[in-house]
Amino acid sequence: MKSVQISFFVLVLTIFRVRNSRCDSPLVLDYYKETCPHLEEMVQRIVEIAVLEDPRMAASLLRLHFHDCFVMGCDASVLLDDFENVISEKEAGPNLNSLRGFEVIDEIKYVVEESCPATVSCADIITIAARDSVVLRGGPGWDVLLGRRDSLTASFNGANQFIPAPNSTLDSLIADFQQQGLDTGDLVALSGSHTLGKARCLSFRQRIYDYNSEEKYGYHERDEEYLSALRSLCPRSGRDNTLAPLDLKTPARFDNHYFINIIEGRGLLISDNELVDQGLQWEIRKHVFAYASNQEYFFYSFVNSMIKMGNVNVLTGNKGEIRKNCRFVNSYTI
Ligand code: HEM
Ligand SMILES: *[C@@H]1O[C@H](CO)[C@@H](O)[C@H](O)[C@H]1NC(C)=O
């Protein structure tokens, strides 16, 4: 009887905590309901056309949201070009010759400004476009919380400092996510984004020639054919921009194959392989195996972590502004 009482108490507490954590977000579902009721249809239509023309664009728009949120929060700082004393994040190491999708965001912003002038933030547009991209490639859908405002500046140094490098150790990946208020569960679920898109030889060269496997389980050495295929694609020097798919098996589908890949030794980046290669981090590997065997569970966790990432350091109220042109702050364009 007593244990029944206790479980009931725990249940009530859990429900309260789940509800409460949702209410913690300063963002809301129906933010533009009155001011721009057709916003999500407009974004979806343009993302759909962009992905039809260039299938990789789905991956690129998803990554754009990540690189926005990890630098000063999800505030569209990543979209700013160089002007006056702002140094664009676009030129930082993780973004240079790599981050894509800026023209698609410009196009969405142009269309949205026609119907709802000076109303919708660039940061919200990126977030909706990222969700739509996942859905278009067969991934899960979710309701996007809205109400972000756009930053008045960018952080070139922040982009170099806070976006994890492809050769990061697991400890530094964990630290990088923790810095954003994201935990190890978020790290594993969000890394599942590498079910889409491509990486340059430059990003995976160390993984195929110089990945120190000492004190590691050696998962990344399991598929020698994969390794030699990558080596012939990406020599020790040169061909820096040659591309390889992050998910060899189902590169165009948003699914859980990424997790199966890394268990089988087919993770493209060191950061991917680290999720299973580090013997001491059983907690993390447990997530990898769970997602590899249960796609629904991966989708469920991915959605939760995307919502969490989309809340990182958002600007609301009278902070920031609603940019008219996503590439410049309003005081500059006027
Ligand atoms: C865990 C740490 C992460 C590291 C170290 C990392 C690193 C990278 C690197 C190096 C590339 C290839 C860039 C290039 O060579 O041009 C890449 C691509 C990509 N990343 Fe990540 N990433 C991480 C997490 C994430 C997260 C959290 C997301 C999304 C929520 C994401 C989404 C993507 C996508 C979709 C691509 C392919 C982009 C395209 O084809 O245009 N990544 N990532
Ligand atoms: C990652 O790569 C950078 C640039 O090539 C290098 O300076 C750094 O030492 C590498 N880090 C690790 C942990 O291997």
Automatic annotation (TrEMBL):
Q: How is the cofactor bound?
A: Binds 2 calcium ions per subunit.
Q: Does the keyword Calcium apply?
A: yes
Q: Which cofactor does it need?
A: Ca(2+); heme b
Catalysed reaction(s) here are:
2 a phenolic donor + H2O2 = 2 a phenolic radical donor + 2 H2O
Record-linked InterPro entries: Haem_peroxidase (IPR002016), Haem_peroxidase_sf (IPR010255), Peroxidase_pln (IPR000823), Peroxidases_AS (IPR019794), Peroxidases_heam-ligand_BS (IPR019793), Secretory_peroxidase (IPR033905)
Q: Which residues bind heme b?
A: H194
Question: Where is this protein chiefly located?
Answer: secreted
The processes (GO biological process) annotated in the record are: hydrogen peroxide catabolic process; response to oxidative stress
- Catalytic class of the enzyme: oxidoreductase
Q: Which residues does UniProt mark as catalytic?
A: H67
For this UniProt entry, what's an example GO CC term?
Answer: extracellular region
Which residues belong to any copy of the Plant heme peroxidase family profile domain? Answer: 26-330
Residues in the signal sequence: 1-23
Q: Does the keyword Heme apply?
A: yes
Q: Disulfide pairs?
A: C36-C116, C69-C74, C122-C326, C201-C234
Keywords for the protein's UniProt record, in alphabetical order: Calcium, Disulfide bond, Glycoprotein, Heme, Hydrogen peroxide, Iron, Metal-binding, Oxidoreductase, Peroxidase, Secreted, Signal
Q: Which Pfam families match?
A: peroxidase (PF00141)
What are the site positions for Transition state stabilizer?
Answer: R63
User: Which parts of the sequence bind Ca(2+) 1?
Assistant: D68, V71, G73, D75, S77, E89
Sites binding substrate sit at P164
> What is an example of a GO molecular function annotated in this UniProt entry?
heme binding
Family of the protein in this entry = Belongs to the peroxidase family. Ascorbate peroxidase subfamily. Belongs to the peroxidase family. Classical plant (class III) peroxidase subfamily.
Q: What is this protein called?
A: Peroxidase
Q: Which organism is it from?
A: Coffea arabica
Name of the coding gene: LOC113702769
